[in-house]
Amino acid sequence: MFNKILIANRGEIAVRVIKTCRKLGVKTVVVYSDADAGSMAVEMADESVHIGPSPAAESYLVMDKIVEAVKQTGAEAVHPGFGFLSENAEFAKRLEKEKIAFIGPNPHAIEAMGDKISSKKLAAEAGVSTVPGHMGLIESTEEAVKISKEIGYPVMIKASAGGGGKGIRIAYDDRDVEEGYPAVKAEATASFGDDRIFIEKFILEPRHVEIQVMGDKHGNCVYLFERECSIQRRNQKVLEEAPSPLLDEATRKKMGEQAVALAKAVNYDSAGTVEFVASGKDKSFYFLEMNTRLQVEHPVTEMITGVDLVEQMLRSACGEKLALKQKDLKINGWAIESRVYAEDPYRNFLPSIGRLRRFLPPVEGPLGGGTVRMDSGVREGDEISMFYDPMIAKLVTHGATRDDALDVQALALDRFHIEGIRDNIPFCAAVMDETRFRSGNITTAYIKDEFPEGFQGTEPTSKQVEYLVAAAAFAHGVMTQRAGQIDGRMAPQPPLRQNWVVILGNDYLPISLDLNEGQAAIELNGASHSVVSAWTPGNPLFEGVLDGETFAVKISIETDGFEVMHRGVTRRALICSPAIAELHQRLPEKEKPDLSKLIISPMPGLVVSVDVEVGQIVEEGEAVCIVEAMKMQNIIRAEAQGSVKAINVGAGDSVAADEVMVEFE
Ligand code: ADP
Ligand code: ADP
Ligand code: MG
């Protein structure tokens, strides 16, 4: 085994690799940019080397700096994590030349699989089923239309060098191709400096199912079953599970064996993933691409197989023989992962950056009927910057069955609290309870199908109303009693009022509350409930037992009440006397300011371009400007037709969230 390795990555994955190295007694070095000085990974590693400014192009992507850091610290090998240089064959070759081990596959395998067209050809040769389509390059729009017609609509136009959901378009007819072909070509040139395009059939009811493979330098290779990653937004994964609800034993075996055949065809000698698109209609499956690296969602595979994939990668990289045998590998239970993103699910999943004022993840270990694992790379007080990927943590849960794993995931999400930035936890939590997701009948269009207007939060069930009311009423009781105790030095403590009205959102719910030393009896809608909790003011998590059942509600104290949240439900809760409640009910609806005449930056970022001029008439839906944050360009469109009155920003300016960029008459 190596004595010391260098991790050429940051955040959550750097921390993940360090954990395994500690277990194996391997010393670690991490490299870091300005933005990551003092990060969790830097703190945990044995050594760290500063490699430059925050933009990845000036730090994590500069091979010379990484190699220099290896030499300076005497590390023997490099783990690239995912993203950055992990699938860069030049980097793997460079390390080979410098006699530094690469904890990943050989450069030839990376090269062969790095290109979607060439890997598809290789896959077909290895007997892997591929998506029907045109395996050659397409040179013009006319040719694109002709080939699309031959394949039959719908088709997918793809950049051969594409990745990360970029450079992909669906076309349903000739017009879509006429529009989509040049668009994908332009995006491919801009993102990958490579404008080669191909077209394949769009698989109906597509589900993303991928096979984890693991190989060594002695020609051995096994598959560690599948993961399903169909819950995606912008072609990027949000929830991943293992195994897949779609596969049966026979399909699983066929897919696994094809993946191994492909891996063997390129002498694959590390952890890798063969991605397939499977049809929910008939379970037919087709090769998409191979990712020649550790995958973000590898923990779900680790949870169901008990194999530490990072450990296996280290062993293979230093020449050990694969100790895993196919016949010994078994699926144990079910695992699911939520990618926790710094993004606002209520605003079309736009990136959100800022300081983590609070970061209270759920506790690792047993919860409900399963177990919780947290893979995170941040701590309270850390800054989430605009320079990198918006993923800040992964929450993984395991249970005996799919329902168990999902139940535990929901319970864990209820206990995961973040303040300072927006996060997608309420969205993931809402999906856990959603009927179609529960049934397992999902496709990659799930988010678009089920949340066509975007995520607006969910409506509470009657059980959830009980949770929210119980938490708010209990908290209010505790706070009133405390206030009474402080005043009590002068006057005898007043008895706690029994009858209240909880104004939950727009609903007026009369209750009676009897609170005594951490126990309450609450009457709601004619039924009485018992609530036990040790909650104290200031705790953002209200954990309690309602009628014998544990629950957790996120609670924040506001000037005139609380904000309470359970799964995807968020409500304001005011607790007042019946008389005040009646007054409240008669208050006029507050007037809202007219925001439709302003173009407001939805997040902090960098203005890429302003595409309108003063005096110009802009139509509804027309692009007004582009703001970049976290590697994503966000086109900001006009909400209504109008004439441009003022432009307050220009290309290159940085903008704050809610900054007014353009004003209309
Ligand atoms: P998968 O691993 O399933 O293919 P992605 O394509 O989303 O999922 O993962 C690769 C992406 O991970 C890269 O394109 C990059 O944007 C992102 N990435 C790279 N480094 C990190 C990191 N330290 N933390 C989170 N995400 C990262
Ligand atoms: P990337 O390199 O960006 O990960 P992929 O080729 O893996 O690109 O495709 C991204 C996603 O698009 C897949 O996860 C899958 O859901 C969907 N997809 C890709 N090709 C097809 C296809 N031919 N039919 C249906 N869906 C597809
Ligand atoms: Mg992919």
Structure description:
- 47% of the residues are buried.
- The chain is globular, with a radius of gyration of 27 Å.
- α7 crosses α8 (174-192).
- The termini are far apart.
- The protein has 17 helices and 40 strands.
- The chain folds into five domains: 4-103, 3-Layer(aba) Sandwich (Rossmann fold); 132-201, ATP-grasp fold, A domain (Dna Ligase, domain 1, 2-Layer Sandwich); 206-450, ATP-grasp fold, B domain (D-amino Acid Aminotransferase, Chain A, domain 1); 462-586, Glycoprotein, Type 4 Pilin (2-Layer Sandwich); 598-664, OB fold (Dihydrolipoamide Acetyltransferase, E2P).
- The strands form nine sheets. The protein has a nine-stranded antiparallel beta sheet. It has an eight-stranded antiparallel β-barrel with strand order 25-26-27-28-29-30-31-32. Strands 3-2-1-4-5 form a five-stranded parallel beta sheet, with helices on both faces.
- The protein is an alpha+beta fold.
- β31 and β32 form a beta hairpin.
- One adenosine-5'-diphosphate binds next to α1 and β12.
